[in-house]
Give the backbone structure.
Amino acid sequence: MKTINVYSRLACAALAVFLFLSLRAAAAPASVPQSFKVEHGQFLLNGKPFQIIAGSMHYARVPRAEWRARLRMAKAMGLNTITTYVFWNVHEPQPGVYDFTGQYDVAEFIREAQEEGLYVILRPGPYACAEWEWGGYPAWLLKEHGIVVRSSDPKFMVPVHRWLMRLGKELAPLQIGNGGPIIAVQVENEYGSFGDDHAYMEQIHRDILDAGFTKAQLYTADGPAQLPKGSLPELPAVINFGPGGARKGFATLHKLRPEGPFMCGEYWAGWFDHWGEKHHTTSAQKQADELAWMLTQGYSVNIYMFHGGTSFGWMNGANISGSNYQPDVTSYDYDAPLDESGHPTEKYMLFRQVIAQATGKTLPSIPAAPVDAALPAVRMSQAVSLWKSLPAPIHSEQVESMEDLGQAYGYILYRTVLSGPVKGDLTVDAVHDYALVYLNGKLAGTLDRRLNQTTLPVEATAPHTRLDILVENTGRVNFTVAIRGERQGITKEVTLAGKPLTGWEIYPLPMEHTDALAFAKAPCVGACFYRATLHVKQPVDTFLDTGAFTKGFVWVNGRPLGRIWNIGPQRTLYLPGSWLHAGANRVVVFDLEGAPGRSIQGLDKPILNATANPLP
């Protein structure tokens, strides 16, 4: 009898395990090969019409620990697809050196999307735009003088081909034809806004195919007016536009591509911010009404952005209009439906309602949002001067750019000695992007690319005067043909009173290991690093208030968090709780015009619309 009971229990246990695994398998996305294609002018998923309701979210802009929570928020808003760019520069920081780990494990991001029941549209570029540093291109490309990016120039296309082949190894297995969630792959990105070199576009198309992206639908995306310049006849074309552009945009698409399919590849649900300009917000109700119209017409749509996140570290890009340089802030909140720290907004609720009505589906419950908390102010009690932290210099008769010296981001210092006395205009041609000029260690003035400043009157009265020019890379331009000249630092020459200056000591300052600096409890004024210890009982999301500082950068526990600048509009930096740990946390601030006694604190809400805040 006991034996029978044992076998009965085993049988019951086995049945329970079987039922659990069966239910789990039923809930999980299919991992068997499926099909997604365009046929008869419409998208077909496994042979049946499929309306794409997508939202953009970029893995590199969201803390890895929060990927799944943000994806669940996307599902709860009614999205069936997530769209993401791939940023080449974070994956190949040096030629042939690849990183697909941690925050940059894009394959894991895509797998998590599938596990949450979402399909994926992949935008591998190699050019991304996206208000991302140099549009996603790695800075080392510019070490090759004469290179012409976004063209068939072999100096460009050879590394492009190598990169796409490597990316294919990571992501081609995740196409829908292999059982993965990737239903579509974009060829290049809005090329019609840049040029009309169809031979170059065909070359990128071939590289995408050679990389193994043959089991998902390929397509191109452009603005309606730019579509003829950027599209390829053999591929479907989708259109990108902002609020108010739906009816006219789709009318143009019907005219240019009457056979379809009909999709808005980017519906701009917000906008991004530049330093020194206003914070952008948009009408949630007007956008919800326009989204409703598109969906009820049967059109597919991708909301850009569903969740903007943060351009952590040095990764903000910049725009340029003529000679007007406009660097982007660190926050990529974008006034998106899901805000920077993952909270649903009014726009989220309206879009969710619109999607539920258009599809007739009961949507999942909205998950609990993360908790944002304030943290007490801490005094930056330790400091060290930049001038006491310089590395060994590199001697060069002529100035050289960051890229010439193998540097991608951060700051760079140029030093020479003037034979005096001498008086005249110091011309720095061309400075990218912000420079501080010192004579014998005293600040003589600044040059700001935003303001088209290249000349500063100086007077050196001593027989020998040390000239220092400290230059910040504020973010390479990521849009228009200007991207072809985006070397950083001093990119041409320096003259004083019309005469070229030579004989330079150059100090690359990528600022990658700030924790190793010789901090001490001593006052520091000017270009200084400051350090404090932030104690937390339990890690929570917070927003570091940087209003006590002027211009520089912040690191937390060695992680590059983002930029600070007291000209606004951003005054807080999003600090994910997953980047903190219980107990002591190191906060380092680099301030170009620092002063002792300043503090930093965590707020429970961001400040993204601050006005200029000049400090004494």
In short: The first strand starts at residue 36 and ends at 39. Residues 52-359 form a domain with the TIM Barrel fold (CATH 3.20.20.80). Confidence is low (pLDDT under 50) at residues 1-29. The longest helix spans residues 2-27.
